[in-house]
Design brief:
By secondary structure, the chain is mainly α. The chain has 22 helices and no strands.
Length: 405
């Protein structure tokens, strides 16, 4: 008997339930056997990347990372007598899956680029904030201390990485997005090694560190939740554009070591997987509150050093970002995370979304409007990266995470 489980808390409130009904055919609620199947992946990590990191630590300091970077830029064939670990890793990632369609990757990247800086709001307020509800996944973040005590820099690095992998043409072998995806995969392996070496890691309560379930959740927050979030803010996509965006992230997920069984093939698959994750992973705790507070503090930092005007900017920034999070996550989740509740700011967000929706409705019918919006979005993203790069100097090579290797 195929009995569907009740709606998880994340879907009983907020906008996810309505969105799943609008964009997914049929009943995407999950069954107990499906939950059991998914939970099995909570004990799975990334053997190829983990083997490379173990090999790196056996080399002289810095040597392993230097060889990895050369293989990343020139291919594994450029190395003389490479280690078995590097060969296995790069032979795997260089064998592009049969389902990857380069034209779809390009179209998906252009659709994302078109959102410009507006696309960064769902990244912070829905993807990152929503991810903090998954308390098991936050344990590695809290243990490293980087998200809580270096929240601003890490937010900038995440945004820079996101722009790298979603810029048209950058997922080709050797290009910036391709390299960024594989570097972050190695960072995850470094963090796993560190967490697995701790005496206080609670495997029974927290599962394996940065396991396959958690990386799948991150993938969906950056893909499906991004699409939903930008639509909530008034952006309009064609059916093909939504499908192409998810196709792009399917490939990014594959590069980052997500098991192919867990990679959604289409939008309905993605909604089913998000429902599974909501049912099993989105269980917030006190660490969720701490991380949410750190992220809000980052948003409030926009007015630092600007006197009275800066205080107003900080107040508005926190209220705007919190309101976007509330509209998606719902009252109970937002209250648990202790996000400010400002009805005026929420109404303002909805009003702006309405204006965006109206302009987006006419855009496809105006010759050249979509291409122009893509150019504006691309320029805005480039300016954002350059400006924040001068202020925060984000480490896009992630050398600080691989210092010992």
């Amino acid at each position: 008997m195929d009995e569907r489980l009740p709606d998880p808390e994340l879907f009983r409130q907020g906008g996810f339930r309505l969105a799943s009904r609008l964009f997914a055919e049929g009943d995407v609620r999950v069954t107990a056997p499906q939950v059991e199947w998914l939970r099995g992946f909570a004990q799975a990590e990334d053997p190829l990347a983990d083997a490379v990191v173990a090999w790196m630590y056996a080399q002289p300091a810095g040597e392993g990372r230097k060889l990895f970077e050369r293989a990343l830029a020139e291919g594994i064939g450029a190395l003389e007598s490479p280690s078995a670990e590097l060969v296995a890793f790069f032979r795997d990632v260089e064998a592009t899956p049969y389902w990857v369609d380069n034209a779809r990757l390009e179209r998906g990247a252009r659709a994302i680029t078109r959102t410009g800086l507006l696309g960064l709001f769902p990244l912070a307020d829905m993807s990152l904030m929503g991810g903090y509800l998954a308390s098991r996944a936050t344990k590695a973040l809290v243990a490293t201390g980087e998200i809580e005590f270096m929240a601003t820099k890490r937010l900038v690095e995440t945004a820079t990485w996101w722009i790298d992998v979603t810029t048209p043409g950058t997922l080709k072998h050797g290009k910036k997005g391709y390299a960024s995806a594989l570097r972050v995969r190695l960072v995850h392996a470094h963090v796993r090694k560190a967490m697995n070496g701790r005496d206080d890691w609670d495997y029974a309560a927290w599962d394996r560190p940065i396991n396959q379930v958690q990386t799948t959740g991150t993938l969906l927050l950056f893909s499906l939740v991004f699409v939903f979030g930008t639509q909530l803010l008034g952006v309009r996509y064609s059916d093909r554009e939504r499908a192409d965006i998810l196709h792009l992230w399917r490939y990014v997920g594959w590069l980052m070591g997500v098991d192919e069984e867990l990679l959604p093939a289409d939008e309905e698959d993605a909604w089913r997987m998000l429902w599974l994750l909501a049912a099993t992973e989105f269980i917030p705790d006190d660490d969720s509150k701490r991380l949410a507070k750190a992220l809000l503090k980052t948003h409030g930092g926009v007015g630092e050093g600007r006197g009275a005007v800066g205080k107003v900017l900080s107040h508005v920034s926190v209220r705007v970002h919190s309101s976007i999070s509330r509209l998606v996550l719902g009252k109970a989740n937002a209250d648990f995370l202790e996000l400010p509740n400002d009805p005026v700011a929420q109404l303002a967000i909805l009003a702006v979304a309405g204006v965006n929706f109206a302009s987006e409705t006419f855009r496809p019918f105006i010759p050249g409007a979509t291409a122009l919006q893509e150019r504006i979005g691309r320029a805005g993203r480039r300016t954002y990266v350059k400006r924040l790069g001068r202020i925060f100097s984000p480490d896009t090579t992630y050398a600080q995470h691989m210092r010992a290797a």
